[in-house]
Amino acid sequence: QVQLVESGGGLVQPGGSLRLSCAASGGTGSRYGMGWFRQAPGKAREFVAALGRDTNTTPYADSVKGRFTISRDNAKNTVYLQMNSLKPEDTAVYYCAARMGSGAWIMAIQYPYWGQGTQVTVSS
User: Fold this and answer.
1) In contact, 27 and 1? CB cutoff 8 Å
2) Residues 32-70: pLDDT tens digits?
3) Which of 1, 89, 115, 116 shows a CA-CA span of 20 to 30 A to 39?
4) Is 53 exposed, middle or buried (CB count within 10 Å of its CB: 0-12, 13-18, 19+)?
């Protein structure tokens, strides 16, 4: 069973950048498809980006396409979410998720393993 720990969140001004990290332990990270989701106060958890095990499949939510990039370093068992041109509406708790297999799943219910989340606040 894999354990996930997110880091890298914080307060940033609109137009700024952050890089989130998700460190996996307890399993071989390269065997898992990974996803990033976010949840703003009073809203449902929503898909942000996913990365297939082969890294060739990388779906993104339309709201972040062109601004966010998901990547992974299998040697470090870590997945990243580079977030550029941040907007106030990107404010949320960001979660990483994992599922064994080769897919890049975009629905939260498809992921059995979750991190505890990291807060991202975009405000001037």
Assistant:
1) yes
2) 899 999 999 999 999 999 998 877 789 999 999 999 999
3) 1
4) buried
